[in-house]
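Hey, sorry to bother you again with one of my protein questions. I've been puzzling over a protein and I'd love to understand its fold better. Take your time with it, there's no hurry, and the full record follows here:
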Amino acid sequence: MLWGGYAKKKGKGINKKKHKVFESPHPSPLAFNRNPEAWLSTKQFTRANEFLAAADPPADPIDWCSIMKRPTTSQKKSFC
């Protein structure tokens, strides 16, 4: 997962035929608190779990909330 311009620049060196890459704007706390839906609508976590489920062999989905310190209410509604 590449979030933000700096990460996308670094990601240019990733072999996308060998690795699945998801890109989106960076979810900075300021931007996220202003408009959480703008970032959550990219569905980064859902897309990652869909990719894992479609893999051969399929992989178990990641429980994203279990690795978050304190998910907010909007985060819980979106991917928990």
Notes: Helices lie at 5-11, 29-34, 36-40, 44-54, 73-79. The mean pLDDT is 85.
